[in-house]
Structure formats: C-alpha cells, structure tokens
Design a protein that fits this description.
The chain has eight helices and no strands. It is mainly α.
C-alpha cells in the first residue's frame, strides 16, 4: 500500500514521493515481466500461468505469428475494466500502466530484438537455470507491482478481486490457486 512506501503519504511531499516510486516500480515491474516472458521462458520451451502464459502458448502454437504483446493486451483489457469498478481506481490505474508497459516492452523486444533469447548452455539440464531466473524476475516484478498498490495484470487482478469479495487471507495463495 501507499503507507508501506512512505509514512508521510498524506502530505504533498508524501504523495509526490509515492507517485514517483510507483512510476519507477511500475516501469521495472513491467520490464521484468516482458523480459522474462520473451527472453527466458519462450526460448526454453516452458510457460507460466495467467495471461502471460496464455500469450506465450498462443505465440508458440502459431509459430510466432500471434505476437505475445497483442494477446497480453487483449486478455488484460477486460480485467482492468472490471478492476476499475470492483477494486480501487488507483489499483486499476497502476495495473493499466503496468500492462500497457508490458505490452510496450514486449512489442519492442519482438520488433527490435526478434531473437533476444537467453538459453543457458548445457542442454535440458540448463533449463532449470532459465526457470529459476524467470521465477526470480517474475516474483520480483509481482512484488514491486503490489508494493505500490497495483498488479502485473491477469491472474493478479483476478486474485485481488477475489480477495476483496470473499476477504481471503493470502493473495499469494489465491494467485497460486488461479
């Protein structure tokens, strides 16, 4: 929440500090998600859950003809609209920014660096390193997004809406369940 970032969030300085940190965290979070999905997960032939996982699967099944960026945006758009009405406006704004930036970073990677893949040497056993690196990046990205009161989209938005509706305890368990 905002209070976790700055104890003076009610002051003008606190509000400005919050939005600067939110902007920086959102940029980093979206970049980490896009980089992980495009450069670590896809080239090593595995996927993740949520909207990013569906985007990766459709990209692989279509042999790259369906860009991850378009699928990611298409899946997240209705969820963001719902979050605007069922969660908080600030959450919806920050989630929209994160999703928009993820789409932007993915589009840049797809267009400017079409083969920017990271495949660790060592064959199939090396995929463990790619999975660990992707997990660390995605976990960090999710934490950064939640820290400022937003999300990385997809299952995160659903989890927050479920938690708000049924007052569930751990957001992490809801995301895991989804």
């Amino acid at each position: 929440t905002r209070e976790n970032i700055d104890p003076n969030a009610g002051t003008t300085k606190g509000i400005v500090t919050y939005w600067v940190k939110a902007f920086i965290f959102t940029i980093l979070s979206s970049l980490l998600i896009a980089f992980s999905a495009y450069s670590l997960i896809t080239p090593n032939n595995f996927t993740i859950g949520g909207a990013s996982g569906i985007a990766i699967l459709l990209n692989v099944v279509s042999d790259g003809r369906i860009p991850q960026s378009i699928v990611l945006f298409g899946l997240n758009f209705p969820l963001v609209v719902l979050s605007f009405f069922f969660v908080k406006k600030r959450f919806a704004i920050l989630s929209t920014a994160n999703i928009g930036l993820q789409t932007f970073w993915l589009f840049l990677l797809e267009q400017l660096f079409p083969n920017f893949y990271i495949v660790f040497p060592g064959g199939e056993a090396s995929k463990l390193f790619a999975a660990l690196a992707a997990g660390i990046c995605i976990g960090t990205a999710t934490a950064l997004a939640f820290k400022v009161g937003g999300s990385t989209g997809g299952a995160d938005i659903l989890a927050v809406m479920i938690q708000k509706k049924i007052a569930a305890g751990s957001i992490a368990w809801i995301i895991f369940s989804i």
